[in-house]
Amino acid sequence: MPGSERESMPSPSSGERGRSGETLREHWECLRALDKQLANAAASFSDDDGAFTYASAYEVAREWNGVVLEVKAPKPTLKSPNGLSKEEYKKVIGASQWIRGVIEGATRISLLSIEAMPVPAAWQESLQANAKETIGVRLYNELSVSYGFDPEALADRESFWGSDLTEEHAVMSDIDVVAQLDALEKAEAVWSAKLKEQQTIDSLETLKTWGHGSRAKTLARRLRNSSAYRRVLYARYPNAEFTSLQQMKLARNDNVALAALASYAGGLIRVASSLRERTLDVLEVHHAALGEANPHRKSPKPFGVFDYISFTASRTSELVYELGKSLERTYDGTRALVGVDGRGCSAQPTAALADRSPAAIHFVSDTDDSDDD
Question: Which stretches does the entry tag as region Disordered (predicted)?
Fold first, then answer.
């Protein structure tokens, strides 16, 4: 309606709706195929052939005053003290690989479905303006690397080695990785908004200097590195819970089809992750019977010289940043105590905006705030 303050959202064209429907159907059929694949793998991995068995249905993980608070999967027992036979070993390995394929495929569809949902305004408004404060200085510097960025090595340095490690090596849990993923999503949202603003500013510049577009390239590089790092974390922790953004998207339920896909995929991921842990437990017992380490469980890589140098430099930068912030807060508190702000004594009248020269206004508006990204 002319003169109305509310603008109607543009409806998608029939072609767009058709392509969207085809994509949803493809994802749905893919999930059904993964479901069948998981069922076949579960049937293949069974203790009916007598290779291994379980002494009980579960083991008590935590209890209090005789009340069971948490249970976990029981450890398998091999029928032969010499471990599995070659045929039995290959059977367990094959089932584990099929289950892993289910986890990877379902994780990809789950992430695509949730990312296609609109971002809630409440989550967007809760973001901090400074991404460095959100993810920390050390991770901020790691994601700002220009060349040779290795997300796998970064995950190792951050002790996110994966959920399929042995218990004595598992440093970061699923709860820790959710906090990391949540911070990365918030930082990426801030960088995406600043990238759009910077690209608009660059397009309006008539004089292209030597530094033209450098800040936009830096922001795009951080987004690219952060996305690659998140993919590694999801691959290493497939059973991690939803982040705050993902939870809000699913709670809004703006798109029933996408929400159904995400729920279906999430259920497959949880069941497949639990079943794959069972296969790894059987392999663990087999290799323990042979007196050797399980090669199918990831083990932390030892830090190399470059890792130590990178970690030390990042840690030093983090300490310097925190020291600067502490001094800034102390300085601001002292100025407020004596009644002086950043422009002088607060008792003095400040100049109106109209009294400022155009040159000063232009200089202030073009101030580079790349350190606050």
Answer: 1-22
- Cα torsion through 93, 99, 101, 103, rounded to 10: -140
Would you say residue 11 lies in a domain? no
Q: Could you tell me if residue 7 is inside a domain?
A: no
Q: Give tens-digit pLDDT for 67-118.
A: 877 777 788 888 888 888 898 899 999 999 999 999 999 999 999 999 999 9
Q: What is the mean pLDDT of residues 188-209?
A: 85
Q: Which structure tokens are listed for 341?
A: 């702000």
Residue 27 in contact with residue 261, Cβ under 8 Å?
yes
Burial 212-223 (b: 16+ CB within 10 A, else e): eeebbebbbbbb
Alpha carbon distance 36, 134 (integer Å): 41
My answer on whether 339 and 328 are in the same domain is yes
The half-sphere exposure of 209 on its side-chain side, counting CA atoms within 13 A, is 5
Rounded Cα distance between 287 and 34, Å, is: 29
Q: How far apart are CA 216 and CA 199, in angstroms?
A: 6
| 3-class secondary-structure state, position 372 | helix
373 three-class SS = coil
Report strand pairing: 344-345 vs 340-341: antiparallel
Domain region containing 83: 20-117+255-301
- Convert the pLDDT of each residue in 18-30 to its tens digit: 556 788 899 999 9
Q: How many Å separate Cα 297 from the centre of its chain?
A: 22
Cα–Cα dist 294/147, whole Å: 35
Statement: residue 55 has pLDDT above 70: yes
- Max CA pair span of the chain: 90
